[in-house]
Amino acid sequence: MTTSPNPWALEARALLALAMPLIIGNLAWSAIAAVDLIWLGELGPDAVGAGALALNLYNALMVFGMGLSTAVSPMIASERGRRAHPVRDVRRTMRQAMWSIAVISLPVWLLLWHSEAVLIAMGQEPALAREAGHVMHGLQWAFLPYLLFYALRNYIGALERPMSGVLIVVAAIPVNALAGWVLIFGKLGVPAMGLFGAGLASSLTAGFMFAAMLAVILIDRQFRRYSLLGRFWVSDWPRFRYLWRLGLPIAITLALEVTVFNASAFLMGLLDRASLAAHAIAIQLAALCFMVPLGMGQAATVRVGIGYGRGDKDAVSRAGWLAILMGLGFAIVTAILLVALPRELVGLFIDVSAPANAEVVRLAISFLMVAALFQLVDCTQAIGAGVLRGLHDTRVPMAFAAVGYWVIGIGVGAFLAFRTPLRGTGLWLGLAAGLAAVAILMVARWAMRGRLGLVPAR
């Protein structure tokens, strides 16, 4: 007597098979940013602070483009759910995504070129803003190639063949490390460029990643069949508008989330330089932990989207709940590690034995204690947003993010930082409160998806 495979077990395997390469790719990309921070740490705490300011401003704009690119995943996934081989629809979706990236890149470049003035207008120290501007003049050119790479990575992920993107990001780690070493410190006969060299190294790395991904989709037979560059200048305005209608709320949601942490860095800069440097280290460690639930949420978007395209409510439910539960399990592990090994983790970025760094180390450790507390809620809100995107539900989650991050998170955090003795630790406690509010709202909406009519009946 044979028994049919358990559908939950089958879904778990499919979800993990898609999520693991995405998680590895996310961790590898985060490692690239960590290498940049390590090189800047060799130049001193002020360089770390300037790099943090530049990256925070840059990422605030980058995530907007990433949000538009993220719309590729649920669109292609639902198209695959409706038809086995939607070649023309996939090609048109990707074409409009690349058009959208080109449209937003020019104004972003213009703004980032004047980042020193922007940072001064935000109240940052002129000397620190000037140094951050040096970083940005090299970094801003990464914007277009990285977003094109990211869109193509979402394309192959939605086709459930993400490994090529993983390999490219992993290969980019030594490329970025070598470029940073050469350009920042003036090795191999190249003049030392300092902070500008750090930004330029990231731009060269982004160019490498896009070129490598483009080569893969033009050479690999499974990807080449979609002819992504075929008839590239032919418009599809209804699809362009739908991509923006779906992707704009995602972009705003991601921007709200990321800019909360960016705003916290700016607020840290108003406290003192030690708090800013400690925040840069702690947020980098928290971001490393976040890469796993982020990858799980990306995989859940695809798996939920395929079920959504088929109109299969059971498949939608299995994919979403499994992603949330798996992500929570990982979050518990990372929270334990942050509590158990804070000094060792901070030591990855700065010399913890140097007397000059004592205050930065102390503050970074206190921030990590709070980061451990919000691992659970940060994981839940990230995956909750991912499963809702699979249902093409992006507007209400955007409102959740606005209230949770900016009303609760920044409101509570700023009060505790500037009106109580908690200072930087209070700011981190406010962030935790905002993440908790968003997590509760996202999961509640997911649980009520049937009553809200988010899953079509077929």
UniProtKB/TrEMBL annotation:
Keyword Transmembrane helix (UniProt): yes
Keywords noted in UniProt: Membrane, Transmembrane, Transmembrane helix, Transport
Pfam family membership, one: MatE
Sequence intervals crossing the membrane: 57-77, 97-115, 135-152, 164-184, 196-219, 246-270, 276-300, 321-340, 398-420, 426-448
Example of a GO cellular component annotation carried by this entry: plasma membrane
One GO MF term attached to the UniProt entry: antiporter activity
Presence of keyword RNA-binding: no
Source domain of life: Bacteria
Protein name per the record: MATE family efflux transporter
Organism annotation: Sphingomonas crocodyli
